[in-house]
Amino acid sequence: MTAGRFDQIFPIGEKNDAFAQYFTGQSYLAPLASGSVPVSNVSFEPGCRNNWHIHRGTSGGGDQILLCTAGSGWYQAEGEEAVSMEPGTVIRVPAGTKHWHGAKADSWFSHLAFITPGENVSNEWLEPVDDEAYGQLPKKGANA
Description:
Blueprint (H helix, E strand, L loop, with lengths): L13 E2 L7 E2 L2 E7 L5 E6 L4 E2 L2 E6 L5 E8 L1 E5 L5 E3 L4 E4 L5 E5 L5 E7 L3 E7 L5 H5 L9
Antiparallel strand pairs: 1-3, 2-5, 3-4, 4-12, 6-13, 7-10, 7-12, 8-9, 8-11
């Protein structure tokens, strides 16, 4: 499947070159809403995932919300099992949680992403997800 044939309701956007150094594989970014709660559609080619990272904030800010809109992907918090994301899956990542998210090895994946507003909101990018650990996760067709 190519990006042109990836069936989703939001635009795939442009290649996410500005953040490419924090991804393994190719991702795409389509800003959907600006303002105090910007929302973007992030799409991942099969096998693409972002590095481990932590969102921070005070006064209620810094939580990340991920809403899967198409394809099949993973979310994983440090020290926890990976969670399969399918269209309709919603994940709330509390501020301060080390985590990553991305496509399954054999599927495109898209999610809407936004950060709750607050004070001192920031993002800390960390190390890439280990290829060996990622490779052991089930594929799209497997029960996960």
